[in-house]
Amino acid sequence: MELTFGAIALGLAYAFLGMGIFITMRIFNFPDITADGSLTLGGSLTAALLTAGVNPCLAVLASMIAGFLAGTATGAIYTKLKVNGLLSGILVMTALYSVNLRIMGRSNMPLISVRTILSPFADIADPTLRILAPILLFLLLVAAFILFLRWLFRTDFGLAMRATGDNEVMIAAQGVATDRMKIIGIGCSNALIALSGSLVAQYQGFADIGMGIGIIVFGLASVIIGDTLAGLFGERFRIGIRLICVAIGSILFRGLVAATLSIGLNPTDLKIVTAIFVLLTIMLPQARSALRGKPR
Amino acid sequence: MILIEKLTKIFGRGTPNEVRALREVSLGIDAGEFVVVIGTNGSGKSTLLNAIAGGFPPDSGRISLNGRDVTRMTDHQRARHIGRVFQNPFSGTAPTMTIAENLRLASLRGIPKRLSIGLDNGEMARLKERSAELGMGLETRLETPIGLLSGGERQALTLLMATLRRPDILLLDEHTAALDPRSAEQVMRLTERIVREHHLTTLMVTHDMEEAVHHGSRLLMMHEGTVALDLRAEAKAGLTPAILLGKFAELRIMAR
Fold this sequence. Notes:
The complex is a heterodimer of chains A (296) and B (256).
Chain A: H1 2-27, H2 35-51, H3 56-79, H4 85-104, E1 108-110, H5 127-152, H6 156-166, H7 168-173, H8 178-204, E2 206-208, H9 215-232, H10 239-262, H11 270-292
Antiparallel strand pairs in A: 1-2
Helix pairs in contact in A: 1-5, 1-8, 1-9, 1-10, 2-3, 2-4, 2-8, 3-4, 3-8, 5-10, 6-8, 9-10, 9-11
Chain B: E1 2-11, E2 19-29, E3 34-39, H1 45-53, E4 60-65, E5 68-69, H2 75-78, E6 82-85, H3 99-107, H4 121-132, H5 151-164, E7 169-173, H6 181-198, E8 202-205, H7 209-214, E9 218-223, E10 226-232, H8 233-237, H9 241-255
Parallel strand pairs in B: 3-8, 3-9, 6-7, 7-8
Antiparallel strand pairs in B: 1-2, 1-4, 4-5, 9-10
C-alpha cells in the first residue's frame, strides 16, 4: 500500500518532467537532453536553499528560475551559435554537473531535518491522511500547471510557440523571431523539469548528484505512454488533455517501476529495464503496422 | 511601391558550384501592379522573390518598400509588409493547429503576439466571415487541424492568410504548381479576386505560360539572373503562350 502511494506521489512529482519533455519534444520538435542536468539542478538548488533556511516556496521558485536559465542556455547555444540541438543539450547538461556539485558542495544532501514544502504534513495524526497529503498537494500542483499551460498555449504568444515547432517557415512569414521562441520554450520546459527535481528531492528527503542521470528516458516514457493514452481517446490535438495523459503516463510508469522493484529486481538494473521498455513502446506502433502488412 | 536597385546575389561564391542568381537587377514596381515573373529554371525568379521577402541578405544592391530601406532586415522583420504564398502547400500553414489558430496568427502578421487569448468568440466570428470569402465551406471547419485538409484547401487558406492583414506586397512563388489542375484553377481564380478586391501590389512567379499570359498587368522574363524582358499594358495584353515560347527560344540562341 505504502509502495503504491509512494509510486503515485513520485509519479506526480515526475509528471512535471514529462510535461517539460512534452513541450520540447512534441511542441517544439526539439530533442532536448538538458533534462539530466536541470532536474538535478532543481534538486540540488532546493536542497542547498532549504539547508540555508530559505522558505520552501521560495526555494521551489528559485529552482524553476534556475531551470529556465539552464534551458535558455541550451536554446541560445542551439539557435544563436548554431550548434547541433542534441550537442547543445549535452554541453549544458555536462556543465550543470559541475554547477550542481558547486551548489551542494558535495554529492549528496539529506533533507530530513530541514523544513520542506511537505513538512506541514508530518504532524498530521491520521497515518493514511499523512501519506495522502503530499499526493494531494502534488496533484493540485500538477492540475494548476496543466491549466496554466493549456491557457498559455491558447494565447497569441502560445500559438506562435506551437507554430514555431509545427512549421517554422510559416511562422517566420508571420513575423515571429523563431529563435527567441525556441529559447523561451526550452527555458519553460527546463523550468518544469527543475520543479520536478525540486519536488522529488523534497519528497525523497535528499538531493543527489546522480538523481538526474538517464532521467530524460523516464520523461520520454511518460510522454510516450501519455500519447498512447491520448490516442486511445482519439485525442491528438488538444494540449490540455494530452498533458493530463502525460501526467497519468508518469504515474503509470512509476507504478511499473515500483512493481518491477517489488518482484525483486535490483534497483541498479532499473535503467536498462527502462531503456528496453521505452524502446519497446517506440517500436510498438511500427510492429503493429508491420503485422497488418502496411508500411508506415 | 517597391524599388530594387542593382541587386546581386551569388551563391557558393568561389566554389565550382558558384551560381550567379541575381546580377545587378534593377526594378521598380508601382502600387497596384500585378507583375507576373517567368523564366527558366535557375533564371533567378524565385531568388528575386526570396530576396524581397528577406530570405537572405543580398551581396550588394538595395531593396526598399514604400520608400523604406529593408535591405538589411530579416524575413520576420519584414513580415509586417509582406504576404507570402509558397509553392509547397504545406509550407504556408501549421498542420497540427486548427484553421482558426492559423488564421489568428496570420491576422497578427508582423505585430507582437501577446500573452492573452486573442482567439475569443468575437475573433472567431470575424475569421468565420473572412474564411467564408473563399467560398470553399471552410468557415464551418474552423476547429479542424489544417493537416487534415487537401493541398488546394491549404493553399487557398495560405492565400487568405497572406492577405488577411493587407500586405504592401503579395509574393506568390509558383503557388499553383504543386496542385492538381482543378485546384490550381480554383486558387488562381481566388488570387485574381483577392488581388483585385484589395488592390494589392503583387509579384507572381509561374512556369505556366497560360497563367503568365492570362493574369497580371505586367510581365517580367528573367534569364540568367537578369530581367530579359519587361512588358506592360498593351504589350502584355497582346501576348500568347506561343509568343512567350518564341521569346524563350530567342534568349537561348542569344546565349550561345
